[in-house]
Amino acid sequence: MLERILAISGKSGLYKLVSRGNSSLIVETLDAQKKRMPVFGTDKVISLADIAMYTDEEEVPLRQVFKNIFEKEAGKKTSLDYKKAGKEELAAFMGQALPNYDRDRVYPADMRKLAQWYNILVENGVTDFDEPAQETAE
User: Fold this and answer.
1) How many CB atoms lie within 10 A of CB 47?
2) Given the DSSP bridges, would you call strands 36-40 and 45-47 parallel, antiparallel or unpaired?
């Protein structure tokens, strides 16, 4: 499911891929408004499935971080108020979600965005953070 959820640079929130046009993508906001709009090749668009978080050893897919938060929060929105949280609160939140995150390369803004995106996904019923089943070639 995360393959169809997109982040668009310069636009807040998350978007669901609805369809593809000749030179654009049609996306829909993941909020109550469900506003549809085109996204063109000049916009920087990335799927949440392609994002990873830095750790001391390797990069961890965002879906695994979301899964850790989902288990920690018992399937509810985060208890952290990411808009008002200070660096220490964000670091504690991140430490619970991904204990060995790279403290030099993961910034407070990244932690805020992680909490915001997680809350948006849970509010809209996107809670399947497991790896997609790999199809076996026969």
Assistant:
1) 14
2) unpaired
Structural contact between residues 14 and 28, judged by C-beta atoms closer than 8 angstroms:
no
Is the residue at 67 inside a domain? yes
Stated as kind and residue range, the H or E segment containing 66 is helix 62-72
- Give the mean model confidence (pLDDT) for residues 17-35: 90
Q: Which two tokens stand for residue 17?
A: 């891929």
The values of phi and psi at residue 12, to 5°, are -80, 160
Among 86, 67, 79, smallest CA distance to 126 is for: 67
Residue 15 lies inside a defined structural domain of this protein: yes
Q: How open is the CA angle 25-122-35, to the nearest 5 degrees?
A: 35
Give the residue-averaged pLDDT of 91-109: 93
Give a yes or no: residue 136 inside a domain: no
Q: What is the pTM assigned to this prediction?
A: 0.86
Q: 28 lies in which domain range?
A: 2-48
Domain contains 128: no
